[in-house]
Every structure is written in C-alpha cells, then in structure tokens.
Design goal:
Length: 125
C-alpha cells in the first residue's frame, strides 16, 4: 500500500488570543473552539507559514509545520508527525483547515471522517 501525502491549509476563520489560549472559529458559522498550548501553536504556525508564498495560501505537510516549530520542541516524540496529522484531521472536521491529498486542489480531496476529539481544545457553540 502506498503512502498518501496529505497537506493542510487553513480555511477562512476568525482567531483571537485570550492569554495562553487561542479561540478560533471557521467563517461564517463556527463552531468556536478553544486551543491551548501546542494546539494553538500548531494552528498559528499553519496559518502563518501557509501565507508565505506570493500566490496566497499553500498547503503544508505536518512535517513542514513541525520543522518550523523545531526550536520550541525540546524532545520531539517519534510519533509527532502522526499526532499532528490526526490533530489537523480533527481541525478539518470542525472547519478550520482543509486537507489535500496527492496534490489535488483543495475542495476535491477526500475527507477522512474522524470520531476523536480535538486534542488540547474544547468546542463551544
């Protein structure tokens, strides 16, 4: 079985920092989620790094996001990439990010359903 490379990009959202927490909600209708600690840092890194290209947002892999956070990751777990992939899949479920497989255009990628809760966050709304 071949490995599918999945990349991620943020969808239109509002974000507001409240102390150490980040409140984020997809536009136009939410839901609003609270992200703490590493969860907030991962989303913020995805948002900021995907804007770097001159042609707007470009999808990023979980590995790329982790590389950008290398200076704050003291002991990166062996399964960090898989954990971040699952976290982004959870964020996709609530509408904050969009996954792209095999270089397909966003919106045409097959969405993977997930039943797990968003790590280090709580949904409201």
């Amino acid at each position: 079985m071949r490995s599918v490379t999945r990349t991620w990009q943020p969808k239109p959202m509002v974000r507001e920092h409240d102390g150490d927490a980040l409140w984020a909600g997809p536009l136009p209708d939410g839901p609003i989620v609270r992200l703490d600690d590493m969860a907030a840092l991962l989303l913020e890194t995805l948002v900021e790094e995907s804007r770097v290209g001159s042609d707007g947002a470009s999808p990023l892999s979980a590995e790329h996001v982790l590389e950008r956070l290398e200076s704050v990751l003291v002991d990166r777990p062996v399964d960090a990439e898989e954990t971040v992939e699952q976290f982004f899949a959870d964020l996709e479920r609530v509408g904050l990010v969009e996954g792209v497989e095999d270089g397909r255009d966003p919106g045409t990628a097959r969405r993977a359903p997930t039943d797990s809760a968003i790590g280090s966050s709580e949904a409201t709304g």
